[in-house]
Amino acid sequence: MVASELDGIIRFKKVGIAMKKKLPIGISDFREIIEDNYYYADKSLLVKELVDNGSKTVLFPRPRRFGKTLGLSMLRYFYEKTEQDTSGLFHQLAIWEQGEAYTRKQGQYPVIYLTFKDIKSRDWAECSIKLKEVISGEYLRHKSLLNAEWMDSHEKKVYREIIDFHAGPSSYENSLRKLSAWLESQYGQKTVILIDEYDTPIQQGYLHGYYDEVIDFMHNLLGSALKDNISLEKGVLTGILRVAKESIFSGLNNLEVCSVLVPDYSTRFGLLESEVEAMLEYYEVGVAPEEVKDWYNGYVFGGTTIYNPWSLINFAAKWRNGLQPYWVNTSSNDLVRQILTESGPEVKKELERLVQGESIRKTVDDNIVFRDIRSSVNALWSFLLFSGYLKIKTDTLVEGIHHCDLLIPNREVAVLYRQIILGWFETSIHSEHHRMMLEALLNGETDTFEDIFQDIMLKTFSMFDIGGEEPEKVYHAFVLGLLVSLRDTHEVKSNRESGYGRYDVMLIPKNPCKKGIIIEFKKAKRGETLEDAVVAALRQIEEKNYESELQIRGVHDILKLGIAFEGKKVCIRSS
Q: What's the pLDDT score for residue 425?
């Protein structure tokens, strides 16, 4: 091959790479994505479902970073009547193949578009200002209404006061209803109202102590705009949660809530497996699909498996850096951390089970009241599900109530849980003591391990309830929390079958030449010494042949550890 031919091939390959669509990291404006040739998984059939749906208002609760803002932006460009023809944005998309019943609606309606996703304030005064700024900005976008001859002087005065932040609270609370009526008068068509991340201010109010104030404002704002509004064509809201119908959407009987529990619209937010495979192939990602699934898959919306688009887009752009968490590192997880850290021992024990890969059975309610998250265990697990920190394994509907087996979705989310669990112990355990204890365990130094373990337990167990009927479970959860940081080098298994029974805890080294560890717990019974109980624990390990699983894995250096306890007193022996 001559040099000129080789140069031509190299140039062709470089052009091919350069011509690939850009990945839309952090871009949620639909028009920018289409016009600037960014990669786009076609979700335009959301329009068809909305048109076919008879509900006047639809709420889409989805976890953050699942394409809600982009979806609403797409709806805005589809519906909004502007001086410029925007139909070209849709000519290559699926909605344009659905016929005139849908395409004739493009560009025909006035649109009110608000996003509350950036309203994150520490007090109600600041939050109130930011809410008014968002509303004022939308009034400013439609300021040509002030030139309308049909608008009287009083209406224009109210309009200007809202723009200039001089209006009273009631004017802002009724602002969307008024604006929709004025827009209908101007365009001769009813108004489409799109509200993105409506519950962000509510979450902030819950976190920072102004929940009642923000609930009252949002109740009046949304109720006025969406309830019995004769100027409303269609209302679409997105958020993470459906915040208690009785407190926010009181009396709004035309609202349809399409949560992750129902099949409707289940494919319109997030990426389907086929869409992920197409994207990874397009960008020639050199990582096995099974590994990608292990890290980023696991969400189930209405029975459909869905991937987190934020994680997948970032991974496709940086796959040579390896698989790593993107979603849990994007924005604050303060609310999740705060709630779980302040939770009781039963929640902590169940979280340990989840980290071990087990499921927990819970009643799930999509009608969450924020006040109940700390006081109601079911509300807590429902919140974690709808926020994207858990997934549904099975869902049984009994008399309208969802009974679900819940799991941690994937490795990316498991990273956050492990960070939270380690945080519990770091608040009361000196990190150096923790490191020394694990080092002693892995080296088989039982006496050193016992001394440090006893010291840590005495300082830490005030956060656990060890006076109940099943203290073994509390010790079990406590030890699993201490061992969670070993997951890079060991499999940490719990309550699994091996030999002729089920062991309590097993550490299986990923390098079979390293030491494997079996731990069995025993509570000293009445009239029994700690020595008697620890001997019984070691005898059970032998009699039940728990070591068989380690031997099958090729691990032959095995430490068998019995841990006996009575209250806060501990005895540890090995064989």
A: 55
- The packing angle between helices 411-426 and 471-483, to 10°, is 110
15-37 confidence digits (pLDDT tens): 444 578 999 998 999 999 999 99
pLDDT digits (tens, 9 = 90+) for 99-113: 999 999 999 999 999
Q: What tokens does 131 get?
A: 């809410």
The token pair at 349 is: 């024990």
- Nearest Cα neighbor of 240 from 360, 388, 453 is 388
Rounded Cα gap, residues 200 and 213, in angstroms: 14
What pLDDT was estimated at residue 464?
43
Q: What is the pLDDT of residue 436?
A: 84
End-to-end CA distance of the chain: 70
What's CA 88's distance to the chain center, in Å?
A: 34
Question: 129: Cβ–Cβ under 8 A, 6 or more apart, which residues?
Answer: 165
By DSSP bridging, strand 191-196 and strand 111-115 are: parallel
The overall average pLDDT reported for the chain is 85
In a 3-state reduction of DSSP, which class is residue 265?
coil
pLDDT of residue 9: 38
Looking up tokens 């020639």, which residue turns up?
A: 284
Q: Which of 121, 237, 117, 125 is nearest to 176 (CA)?
A: 237
Q: What is the CA radius of gyration of the chain?
A: 29
N residues, the chain: 575
Backbone angles phi, psi at 21, to 5 degrees: -65, 145
pLDDT at 461 over 60: no
What is the pLDDT averaged over residues 120-137? 95
436 exposure class (CB count in 10 Å sphere: 0-12, 13-18, 19+): middle
In this prediction the pTM is 0.74
Judged against a pLDDT cut of 60, whether residue 466 lies above it is answered with no
Residue 67 DSSP symbol: S
- Please report how many Cα atoms fall inside a 13 Å half-sphere around the Cα of residue 487, on the Cβ side: 16
Q: How far apart are CA 448 and CA 303, in angstroms?
A: 50
| Distance, CA of 178 to CA of 163 (rounded, Å) | 14
- The 3-state secondary structure of 70-134, one letter per residue: HHHHHHHHHHECCCCCCHHHHCCCHHHHCCHHHHCCCCCECEEEEECCCCCCCCHHHHHHHHHHH
> Is 103:95 a contact under the CB 8 Å cutoff?
yes
Query: Nearest-5° angle of CA 346, CA 349, CA 350?
Result: 90
Report whether pLDDT(544) > 60.
Answer: yes
Tokens 């390098």, located at residue: 511
pLDDT of residue 467: 47
Nearest to 205 by CA among 173, 243, 175, 174: 243
Q: Is 368 helix (H, G, I), strand (E, B) or coil?
A: strand
| Longest pairwise C-alpha distance within the chain | 94
Q: H or E element: which one contains 47?
A: helix 45-52
pLDDT band at 526 (very low <50, low <70, confident <90, very high): confident
Cβ–Cβ < 8 Å for 392, 406: yes
Tokens standing for residue 135: 């509303």
